[in-house]
């Protein structure tokens, strides 16, 4: 028998916070990996690249806003003009420019390349966070070396997938979606491959900036669902303004099949609605570098999904790149864990020196929080 909501909630209380973070990020990556394939399906059907993200964010806003209003009444700070400007800029960088670049890049390339290019996000995020002093980097300690080495491994893996194909090791005989043409990395006929790659690089820069900008905003406005709602709201206005000027064909605003409707619902509910909320929560808990470190996992997931659904061929370069990507992911996560332990030990030593038996009530002052403050 399935567990009831309260029973499941009681069980989740016993799950360590670090485990919750890893579970949430894995769920996010599975959902987002499916989005690469679904969006390619929608683009193959000729769906508008301006109308689609507008509908997608409308669905996300309708899904998040009620929870934000009722659950964060006490946590939500007063709304000021400064916050509105920050939310507007966050929407432009993280949603409007981010999704616009991505759709244009995906339309001119393939899901596998789009996902592989996103593996540059951890490196760019790491660099931005280090420059802005949001993320500490100690090259004289093993945790700092592990994070840098892990980032390099992830980028190297993504580069191998993008540049080196190698022999085909898997060729699906019958894609699950028989109505769509079989495509492969670099075979986007009739498309501008160079433009697609440039747009995907712009997408990665915008996504990295979005992840990094979320951290300081959440410190001042600690209401993740409300931040997601305001961000989606401003993104909708931006997309509607651009689409209203450029997309004059009224047929572009209509759904012509159930597949198009499903693609919009999936992207809006799973990726934007649930995914944005998970990302904001994880950034607030563990910082931008931890969140971006999970992105390389998408490449492996997308390669498998695109191979089965769209008939993309699986190359040796993809396998070699995936191994490096997973090694890099492990090194970054291990480095973050070691950094948290080091910060905890550093914080505990002064407290032990200042404490006395009379103030401890017989209890040991030494403890290790699951999520140290320095890792947030």
Large-scale geometry: globular
Percent in helix: over 70%
Note the run of SSEs as H and E.
HHHHHHHEHHHHHEHH
Secondary-structure class: mainly alpha
Radius of gyration of CA atoms, rounded to a whole number: 22 Å
Strand tally: 2
Major sheet: 2 strands, antiparallel
- The number of helical runs is 14
Q: State the end-to-end CA separation.
A: 38 Å
**Whole-number mean pLDDT:** 77
Strand content: under 5%
State the strand order across the main sheet: 1-2
List low-confidence stretches.
175-188, 358-376
Characterise the protein shown here.
With 376 residues, the chain is mainly alpha-helical. The protein is built from 14 helices and two strands; from the N terminus they run αααααααβαααααβαα. The protein has helices at 5-13, 17-44, 51-71, 81-108, 111-117, 121-131, 142-163, 193-220, 224-246, 258-286, 288-293, 297-310, 316-354, 357-360; strands spanning 168-170, 314-315. A two-stranded antiparallel ribbon has the order 1-2. Helix 3 (51-71) packs across helix 10 and helix 7 (142-163) packs antiparallel against helix 13. The protein is globular and about 65 Å long. The model is unreliable at 175-188 and 358-376 (pLDDT under 50).
Structural key phrases:
single chain; 376 residues; mainly alpha; two-stranded antiparallel sheet; 2 strands; 72% helix
């Amino acid at each position: 028998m399935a567990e009831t909501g309260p029973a499941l909630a009681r069980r989740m209380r016993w799950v360590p916070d670090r485990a919750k973070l890893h579970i949430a990020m894995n769920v996010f990556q599975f959902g987002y990996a499916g989005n690469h394939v679904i969006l390619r399906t929608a683009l193959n059907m000729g769906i508008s690249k301006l109308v689609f993200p507008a509908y997608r964010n409308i669905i996300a806003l309708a899904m998040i806003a009620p929870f934000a209003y009722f659950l964060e009444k006490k946590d939500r700070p007063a709304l000021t003009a400064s916050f509105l400007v920050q939310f507007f800029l966050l929407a432009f960088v993280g949603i409007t420019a981010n999704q616009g670049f991505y759709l244009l890049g995906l339309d001119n390339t393939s899901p596998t390349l789009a996902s592989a290019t996103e593996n540059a996000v951890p490196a760019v995020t790491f660099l931005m966070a280090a420059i802005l002093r949001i993320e500490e980097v100690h090259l004289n300690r093993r945790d700092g070396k592990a994070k840098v080495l892990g980032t390099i491994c992830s980028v190297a893996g993504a580069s191998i997938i993008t540049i080196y194909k190698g022999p085909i090791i898997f060729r699906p005989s019958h894609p699950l979606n028989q109505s769509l043409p079989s495509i492969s990395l670099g075979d986007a006929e009739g498309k501008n491959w160079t433009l697609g790659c440039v747009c995907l690089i712009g997408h990665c820069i915008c996504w990295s900036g979005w992840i990094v900008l979320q951290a300081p905003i959440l410190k001042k406005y600690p209401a993740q669902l409300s931040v997601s709602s305001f961000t989606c709201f401003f993104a909708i206005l931006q997309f509607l303004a651009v689409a209203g000027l450029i997309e004059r064909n009224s047929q572009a605003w209509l759904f012509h099949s159930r597949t198009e409707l499903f693609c919009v619902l999936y992207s809006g509910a799973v990726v934007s609605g649930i995914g944005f909320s998970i990302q904001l929560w994880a950034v607030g808990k563990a910082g931008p570098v931890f969140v971006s470190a999970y992105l390389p996992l998408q490449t492996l997931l997308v390669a498998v999904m695109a191979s089965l659904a769209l008939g993309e061929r699986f190359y040796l370069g993809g396998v070699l790149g995936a191994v490096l990507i997973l090694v890099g992911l492990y090194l970054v996560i291990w480095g973050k864990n070691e950094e948290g332990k080091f910060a905890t030990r550093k914080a505990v030593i002064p407290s032990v020196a200042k404490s006395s038996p009379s103030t401890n009530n017989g209890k040991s002052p030494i403890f290790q929080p699951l999520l140290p403050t320095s890792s947030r």
